[in-house]
């Protein structure tokens, strides 16, 4: 662990103690949850720690922290400090320094933090739409450094009216009115949660979280969502298990110090800044963005529409000119060949530029995606290729875009959707301890989809974890034959020799080969633990 991570772990232990003593349920969130599942702790390059609580649990936490916190600690949130320039909560160490962009003018405390995101109960999709508009306005009023509503093309007139009301009635009255609209739904009357975050108001089914189950984070027992796999796929896609390229291993920009508190640093630079002037410039910039919101979005859309049309024309021409019988290749299960053929279409059509992402910079295109329409028959072949080559989340997103742009799915496309739903269900069953049901469903599916890489991964792991060694060895051996380039399967064959045959030398030979030929972080983490604890 880095020194930053050690300090964040100390703060997290304090939160765990508060929650345990007061029966408060929390969940590990975002990249921190990836860390739990893929690394058993921090992602090596990560420099923050995120948790979530439902609104009812959050209210309990706020009330406890209002009166009782360790020395040099403060809970920053709108409930306790209207000068705090964020809509989520932060458990802060005031003896340190971590000044982010929206804290440079001295608003709120700016030490090392644990971010605490809130899950608000909400009844349905229409309420979620209204919540999103209201929350973007709320975020714009709280944090002048960021433009939230711009990404959804909403609140142009509302923001101007709200600012005028603030001048006349005061900030508190306007914020309280919005809070009453957004945060008043009762938990027992709602089937969904919405994430209280100005970046993206994610919508979740409540049973994704449940009462939580247990994971491990740097040796600490920690709470994770009941359907952790569903959560991670929704946030990060099917490849969340894999270590990203070095240039995607990002951390945060801030003024960090564990030795000097933030007030000491601010005392050095704040006298050099005309704070009122900077605030005024921020406000003018935000008004400028609101004034030109629609034009900016439309200009961006024009460029993406042109890219979509080019992608469509290129793909259709390629299909017309090829000597390959693409549907026959699909029936023969030659998905590696099909993936090569359709690689450019898949890469462009599923890119952030075309379909966005559920994150801060990608949400505008996510709610207004572009579609390169290559016809449903060709799309079916593309989607079958994707679901058989571990691109299930991207295939699901592509189906969503197809429905949004063209309406009802054909019978073939519905069959792809059905597979995706069945696959997600069996993964959730396994998460929730229904291992026999999950394995049975996977075995049924793989009879219909014998070349499916994701099912092969799932069954290889499940057979070993459930000690079904008679099934494991032939299945994993066949998977290695099908996918010789992926070391994932070598690891589980190593487990077979290690735990069933007690052939340690053979097992460890396979572990080393696996580690050299996979980017799967879970497998690498497990191999590391096995090798660390062994005398071989």
Structure overview:
The chain has 536 residues and is of the alpha+beta class. Among the domains are: 3-125 and 193-283, Beta Polymerase, domain 2, CATH 3.30.460; 293-420, no CATH class. Helices cover 57% and strands 10% of the residues. It has helices at 3-21, 30-39, 55-67, 125-142, 156-169, 171-182, 228-236, 262-269, 275-291, 293-321, 326-331, 335-341, 343-349, 352-355, 363-367, 376-387, 392-406, 411-431, 435-448, 453-465, 469-482, 488-500, 504-516, 521-532; strands spanning 27-28, 50-54, 73-76, 89-93, 97-99, 112-122, 192-196, 203-205, 213-217, 220-224, 255-257. A hairpin with a 2-residue loop joins strand 9 (213-217) and strand 10 (220-224). The longest helix has 29 residues, at 293-321. It starts with a helix and ends with a helix. The model has no long low-confidence stretch (mean pLDDT 93).
Number of separate helices: 24
Structural class: alpha+beta
CATH architecture of the domain at 3-125 and 193-283: 2-Layer Sandwich
Q: What fold name stands as the CATH topology of the domain at 3-125 and 193-283?
A: Beta Polymerase, domain 2
Termini gap: 26 Å
Helix proportion range: 55-70%
| CATH top level assignment of the domain at 3-125 and 193-283 | Alpha Beta
Strand content: 5-15%
Let me know the average pLDDT: 93
Q: Descriptors for this entry?
A:
alpha+beta, Beta Polymerase, domain 2, 7-stranded mixed beta sheet, 24 helices
Give a quick precis of the structure.
This protein is an alpha+beta fold. Helices cover about 55% and strands about 10% of the residues.
